[in-house]
Amino acid sequence: MLVVSWIFQQKRVDKKLPRFSVGKRNYLNIRHVFSRHVFFIFNKIRDRILLVRNTIQLEYKNPKKIKGSFIWRVNSKFLSNSNLRVKLGTNLEDQKLLEKLIRKFGKDKLYFTSGDENKNKFFIWFSRVKEWENQREVKMKYNIQPIETYKDEENDNLIDFFDFSEKLNKKIQLRINFNFDVYETQLQVNSADLKEYNRTSSLYKRYTKIEKYLEQTEEIKKLAKNIIGKERDYFKRARKIFYWITENITYKYPPQERGVIPTLKNKCGDCGEFSFVFISLCRSVGIPARFVSGMWATPIKKQEFHAWAEFYLENIGWIPVDCSVSQTLKMKTNKEFIRFLEKIENPLNPGYYFGNLDNKRIIFSKGNNILLKNCPKKLSKLKMMENCRTLFMQPSSIYPFVAGKRKGIFIIEINPELNIL
Q1: Which residues of 92-103 are buried (b: 16+ CB within 10 A; e: fewer)?
Q2: pLDDT digits (tens, 9 = 90+) for 282-311
Q3: How far is the CA of 413 from the CAs of 23, 77, 181, 303, 416, in angstroms?
Q4: Three-state DSSP class for residue 356
């Protein structure tokens, strides 16, 4: 009201201008200039009010204590060519034998060794639970200490490196006890200013770039622009992308193929593929976004891996987005999962999962194509690996590296188990 009153006062002053002894032409010029200044000030104040009304703030509330353990049970067995020839009268070149092994153990548990190593090698990388904005006071205790813990500088993850080479052909149990607080992330309105992105910053460059599985083809860019329309506000752009995904992609596990391109083509995927689509579409319109890998932390589900995404706003921070949970609630496609959310007292409003996040999750890693230190080049031949970078890191998602000094095959069974107290 003060603004409007002040403007009307200025108009009254404007009407008195003819009393000055100025010519008609000068009077018109003065009136024109004065009116421009008044409306300029009015527009500035109006824009400021709208900006304040539309800005956001992240708050971390309702802390929940998470206690439990993560256990890796590793069984390894070596079948050499010579032993197979003596005992079975065959070798690893026998296609029927390989098919039998694959049926029994699964392809991902078989590691062929050419015998050109000086010694057996068995490496494992584990993404350590660390502190994030909503995950605090983390305490970890290992029964077997890693050889090295290093920081993933690109994504701020902590990676444990284990060398179990001397324990090949033996049973290994790696137990990690953890204790930390998880906060609910809530989206709130405040008076902070939204700022334009610093496009020269390392954060902006890192999380808007094109990556494997996160492509930004011309078709993807066109789709992203069609979704956001003429919207210039980055927060509203991200929200439009979120709602488009929940209305156009359906949940399917396992996905036919990993990555944003096949997911958009098939219009379906699991939680990871939902996140890939959100990230790629955001990056295509200049919004930094990244992947979050974790698990549900509740005694109701012993082990349930999950993934979601985050997008970044300057002067605000990383804002969580869970497209797959929102889509499931909106379409009511998975009644069992909805019952699970009800049991753990999670919000059942699909819109909650844009900007808000519950306090019943463990975060293991953030970002994609994470660099593995001490990684042999041979590891890059594995699925979802390129140049010693893994697509993402969950306790069961990173393949170990196995190499042998004898020609044969290692059968490696890794059984992860999460226990929440």
Answers
A1: beeeebeeebee
A2: 999 999 999 999 999 888 766 678 999 999
A3: 95, 9, 32, 17, 10
A4: coil
292 and 309 Cβ atoms separated by less than 8 Å? yes
Q: Which of 320, 328, 331 is nearest to 358 (CA)?
A: 320
Grouping H, G, I as helix, E, B as strand and the rest as coil, residue 207 is: coil
Say how far apart CA 258 and CA 249 lie, in whole Å.
14
Please count the other Cβ atoms lying within 10 Å of the Cβ belonging to residue 419. 14
- Comparing C-alpha atoms, which of 132, 137, 59, 57 is closest to residue 294? 132
Task: Return the number of other C-beta atoms located less than 10 Å from residue 216's C-beta.
Answer: 18
Q: Which two tokens stand for residue 338?
A: 């909805």
User: How many angstroms separate the Cα of 420 from the Cα of each of 182, 250, 297, 374, 415?
Assistant: 13, 30, 6, 32, 17
Residue ranges for the chain with pLDDT beneath 50: 1-22, 24, 27-28, 32-33, 39-40, 42-44, 46-52, 191
pTM of the model: 0.80
- In eight-state DSSP terms, residue 208 is T
Is beta strand 135-142 parallel, antiparallel or unpaired with respect to 172-188?
antiparallel
What are 368-419's pLDDT values in tens digits?
989 888 887 666 555 566 778 888 887 655 567 777 777 777 777 777 778 8
CA atoms of 324 and 303, how far apart (whole Å): 18
Please list the residues that pair with 57 across neighbouring strands: 188
